Amino acid sequence: MTPALALRQVSFAYVNASGERWLVLEGLDVSVMPQTFVALVGPSGSGKSTLLRLMAGLLRPQSGEVLRFGQQLHSPGSVAYMPQRDLLLPWKTVVENAAAGLQARHVPRKQAEQRVRELLPAFGLEGFGEATPDQLSGGMRQRAAFLRTAVLEAEPLLLDEPFGALDALTRADLQRWLLHMWEQMRRTVVLVTHDVDEALLLADQIFVISERPIRHTQTFSVDFPRPRTYEVTLTPDFLAYKRAILVSLQEGRA
Ligand SMILES: Nc1ncnc2c1ncn2[C@@H]1O[C@H](COP(=O)(O)OP(=O)(O)OP(=O)(O)O)[C@@H](O)[C@H]1O
Ligand SMILES: [Mg+2]
Fold this sequence. Notes:
33% helix; alpha/beta; 6-stranded mixed β-sheet
C-alpha cells in the first residue's frame, strides 16, 4: 500500500544569519499509512514541529523527498495543518474564522461558511457560530481552530499539540471528543504531543524521537481495540506501553 505520507532520506537544517547550520533531521525515513492515527512524541526542541512542517510542505528538505500518496509535495495546499499556536482572529466570528482556510483555497465565502455551519454541532459549537473567540471557553476556541483545519478535507491531518495549552479536565474532554471523531472519520492523522498518555489513548502508532539530529524514530504499534474509552488508560497493558515509551525517550538522553 502507498503511504499517505512518506519522508525518504530527508535532511533539514535551519541556517541563521551568520550562516551557521542547526541540523534537525538527517537522512530520516518515515512512513504514515492511510487512515492511521500516528502520534509523534519527543522532548521539547527535538524537532517535532519541524518534522510536521516538512510533512505539511511548509518547509523544504535540503535533501531527500516528502511524498504524499506517492507524489512529491509541491504546495502546502494538499494537507491540512494546524500549527502549534493556532490563533483565531479576535474580530471574526467562529464561522468566519473556520471558513478562512477554505477561502484561502478559493472556495467562495458563502459556500465555505455553509460548510462550516454544517459541522458546528459535531465540533460542539452549535449556537456559537456567530460568537467571537473572546466569548468562548479555551476548549471551544481549540475546537474552533481544529474545525478550521478539519473542514479542509485534505489528507493527512497534521496537528501540532492541539491540546497543549489547556487545563487537564478540558484536555481530557477534548481527547475523548477527538477519539470519537476520529473513529468516525478515519482520516490519516499525525498528532504531535508531549503527553505519552494522550498518544497511547488516541494513536495506532507512536513514533518516538529521542535523538538530535533525528536520524530515525522508534515505532510502537498500539493495538488497543476500537472504539476506545478512557478505561483503557487503567489497564496493565497501557502501563507496560507507557513504561516502554518512557524508556525509549530516556535512551536519547543517556
Ligand atoms: N525558525 C527557526 N530558526 C532556527 N532554528 C529553529 C527554528 N525553529 C526551530 N528551530 C530550532 O530547531 C530545533 C527544533 O525545533 P522544533 O520547534 O521543531 O522542536 P519541537 O520538538 O517542536 O519543540 P516543542 O516541543 O518545544 O514544540 C530547536 O532547537 C529550535 O530551536
Ligand atoms: Mg513544537
